[in-house]
């Protein structure tokens, strides 16, 4: 997987919401990793990014959009 081109599919400072989205991506078989840019002392600064391989970016964003619509 060294040649994978990782792209950001979702970013948030809300770890609970991010965890739900990560679980949904896992359930759909979409490989994802967290890239944490939050300050370790003050979690209100910075975001955590869910990164997916470029070839899965469109399907990941479509799934995330569906989940966001359900949450409204």
Short description:
The protein is 39% helix and 24% strand.
What does this entry look like structurally?
By secondary structure, this protein is α+β, with helices and mostly antiparallel strands. The protein has one domain: Alpha-Beta Plaits (2-Layer Sandwich), CATH 3.30.70. Helix content is 39%, strand content 24%. The chain has a 3-stranded antiparallel beta sheet. The chain is globular and about 35 Å long.
Question: What labels would you give this structure?
Answer:
2 helices; 72 residues; Alpha-Beta Plaits; alpha+beta; 3 strands
Mean pLDDT: 87
Would you count the extended β strands for me?
A: 3
Instruction: Supply the CATH architecture.
Output: 2-Layer Sandwich
Query: How many distinct helices?
Result: 2
Q: Report, as a whole number of angstroms, the end-to-end distance.
A: 36 Å
Beta fraction? 15-25%
Low-confidence stretches: none
Shape: globular
Structural class: alpha+beta
Number of domains: 1
CATH class: Alpha Beta
- Gyration radius over CA: 12 Å
Strand order of the largest sheet: 1-3-2
The main sheet comes to: 3 strands, antiparallel
Q: Helix and strand succession?
A: EHEEH
CATH topology: Alpha-Beta Plaits
- Percentage of residues in helical conformation: 25-40%
């Amino acid at each position: 997987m060294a040649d994978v081109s990782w792209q950001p599919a979702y970013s948030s400072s809300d770890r609970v919401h991010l965890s739900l989205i990560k679980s949904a991506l896992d359930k759909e078989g979409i490989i994802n990793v967290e890239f944490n840019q939050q300050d370790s002392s003050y979690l209100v600064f910075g975001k955590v990014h869910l990164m997916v391989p470029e070839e899965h970016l469109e399907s990941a964003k479509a799934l995330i959009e569906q989940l966001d619509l359900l949450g409204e």
